[in-house]
Amino acid sequence: MSTLLLLAPLLVLVAGALAILMVDAIYLAAGKKAGSLVKAVHGQKGPVDGSAGGPAWALERSAAGAVFFAVAFVLSLIFLLKGYAGSEGSLLAGSLRFDTLALTGFLLVTAGGGLASLMAGGYFHELKADHGGFHPLLLLSTAGAMVLVASADMITFFVGLETMSLAAYAMTGFRIVSPRSVEGAMKYFLLGSFASALMLYGMALLYGESGSIDLDVIGRVLTGPAAQKPLAVLGSLLVLTGLLFKVAAVPFHMWTPEAYQGAPTPATGFMATVVKAAGFIAMLRILGTALTDPALAGPPFGWATILSMVCVVTMFWGNLAALKQKNIKRMLAYSSIAHAGYILIGVIAGWVYPAAVGRAQWAMPPIVSASIVYYLAAYVAANAGAFAVVAIACKGGGEATDIEDFRGFGRHHPLLALALSICLLSLLGMPPLGGFFGKLYIFRLALDGNLWLLAVLGMIASVVSAYYYLGVIVVMYMKEKEAAAEAAAPITSGQMAAAIILAVLLVLALGLAPSPVLSLIMG
């Protein structure tokens, strides 16, 4: 099969972004107005409505984006099921590697992007916010994530990373009329730019020591004495720093609560799913291909040693900080930090896993990468569902983001409360949901690799998280809203309802059929 055909999912998203932009321009050309942004800048009064094309077009834009994501998802699934990528993967121009890891990454990011697109239609229309460019940004950011997970050299890796990140920065600050949204975007942008600069400098050092930008070549050259050179070690640490920022691991997590809380909820859902999933798959790609020598991975300054400390701090800091949060988006932000710690246990286990011992050229064992991808799949589905329920509770433009806003939600809106409960219980790791098997596979890797302490600490951290996950459920079902206060009111949106239903079904499917999904991910 032609390698060029494997580009089809990525090209579908790029074509979709261009198509929406062109149709948007043509459709609105006759009576296009500056909309809410100009009103906000000049302090004009009146309703903020950026839907110059009317509410129908606002929803069609969202549906069109979801269709493009669905096509890309189906194509990626067909390629994976048919084994078109091959066992070692197909290399395109030495820059993109289409292997099982890349195709499963395509599935994750297109699923997360599609659910975010469905969330956005009813959300932006109800809030009467300017949203004309949101869906092209969503599509292009996901296309960048696809380039990132399939990259085979450092230049392609960085281009994909920045394409994904720049669009994510813009989506974070998309509600320019909201000071919190602008603040979150600025913090995300400034810290992200700094992390990208460190990563780029690290890549330059690795290039200087290896003489190549190809990840495979770097892995072959930086072995033995070459891997022990100070600049090679420093370069690997700087690259690792940039990766840890993208997955929001402590101490590179500072942007996460502000960006998650300030961003429009569909953008928050996108960052919590697509950006996080792409970041971890990129980490597997870099660590399992380019930084494989014991001098770069093992003690005293290797990535496995550093990640061992980072993952413990990340798990406990994320969970302990989430305990005192009153805003549900901020609570889920700290929850995502904690989940980064759990996933890092699996990454560390890849270095000591029995299947990796004694290899002439070490690489991330397939069972390790498959277990991590499975965890990411369960995490993406549960987080997307949770944020979709939060997003739909925005009737009249008043977002229900405080946990107390959901008092009595279980009695007044039982189906939505059930959906949110399922997603939160999956994030907690309650059987038989997808999150339970995700944690089971990760902790099993740790035990097989004799990482007993990390496994025990991970389980303790999971127990801590039960307090705030179950706390939301208690508020929904066991507390009633005070008479003078308004309860969280959901809007009527078929697209947002579809996002919730799809996310919940994915959570249940991953829990009810874990073995077939894991086998599919392993190729």
Distance between the termini: 17 Å
How much of the residues is beta strand, in percent? under 5%
Instruction: Give me the strand/helix succession.
Output: HHHEEHHHHHHHHHHHHHHHHHH
Number of helices: 21
Low-confidence stretches: 30-55
Main structural class: mainly alpha
Kindly provide the radius of gyration, computed on alpha-carbon positions and rounded to a whole number of angstroms: 22 Å
Number of domains: 1
How many E strands? 2
**What spatial order of strands do you see in the largest sheet?**
1-2
Average of the residue pLDDT scores = 85
Helix content: over 70%
In this structure, how is the largest beta sheet organized?
Answer: 2 strands, antiparallel
> Which descriptor suits the 3D outline?
globular
Written description of the protein model:
Helices cover 72% and strands 1% of the residues. The chain has 523 residues and is mostly helical. Helix 3 packs parallel to helix 5 and helix 14 packs parallel to helix 18. About 5% of the residues have low confidence.
Q: In summary, what is this structure?
A:
This protein has helices at residues 8-28, 36-42, 55-82, 100-127, 134-150, 154-172, 179-210, 215-221, 230-246, 255-262, 265-289, 294-297, 303-323, 328-352, 366-392, 409-412, 414-428, 434-448, 452-478, 494-512, 514-522, and strands at residues 90-92, 96-98. The chain has 523 residues and is mainly alpha-helical. Mean pLDDT is 85; it is low at 30-55.
